[in-house]
Structure formats: structure tokens, C-alpha cells
Write a structure and sequence with these properties.
Blueprint: H1 28-36, E1 39-42, E2 49-55, E3 60-66, E4 76-79, E5 85-89, E6 94-103, E7 109-116, E8 125-130, E9 138-141
Antiparallel strand pairs: 1-9, 2-3, 2-8, 3-7, 4-9, 5-6, 5-8, 6-7
Amino acid sequence: NTNVIYWAEAQLELGSTATSFSRAGGTLAGELAACQRYYYENPLYQWTPFGTGFNYSTTKSYIFLRHPVQMRTLPTFTISAAGDFRVFGSTGNSIDVTAISITDISTFSANADITVASGLVAGNANTLADDGSALAKIRGSAEL
């Protein structure tokens, strides 16, 4: 005979008195925000923008990245391949990213320094997004 038992919402207690179940964040949204203090990944969907910024030359761009919530400490970042990203300029052009690095990291935000081969207009605004493949990811981790 085979029996299958599923457990959910259980907690181990010290002593003989049980405490009532409670969420660390109070609500599901609070739980998500508490989790995002330790880790987040962007974007969640294809073509979702990472952030906006400006071009400071024809090959360099500066993108502002806001964390979803304040991180518990300065996060470290993992970035997928630069070729998975594109810069969408205010002139309607779409340019492949050749290099990307994260700078000016705080618990609230960071900046992405973007390099392209050519085609940016210095001083113009732009948006950083994936190239449509949904492979572009920026992961922020403030794990213990």
C-alpha cells in the first residue's frame, strides 16, 4: 500500500504552546516586497524595459535602474549576455548593446553603463530593453 501525505503551512514550535500562522510581510504583497529585499530579476516579460536614460556619446549610454523595493544591503548583479539587450532611442532607432556594466549601486537603485558600436545621438533619451528573445536578464542579489 502506498500513502501520499502533503503538508502545507506548517511550522515547528519550541514548547507546548502553538503560535498562530502569520506572514512575515503581513500580506502577499508584503511577502513579495520582503523577498525582493534579497533578490529580484528583471524583466519578467519580453520587450519589458529595464530603465530609461540618456546617451553621453555616440557609443555610450547611461541607464537608471530602480530596484522594485529598497534592498537590505548593496546588491551584487548578474547580467546576461550583452547581445541580448537593445537600446531604443528617442529617434526610433533600435541598437544592439555590445557591453553592459552596473555602476553607482545603492540600496534603492543602480545605473547601467551601456556600450554600442555606433548610432546613438549624444544628449538624447533612450530605453534599455531586451532584444525580443526574452533572454536579457539583470539579477540583483542582496542575500545574506
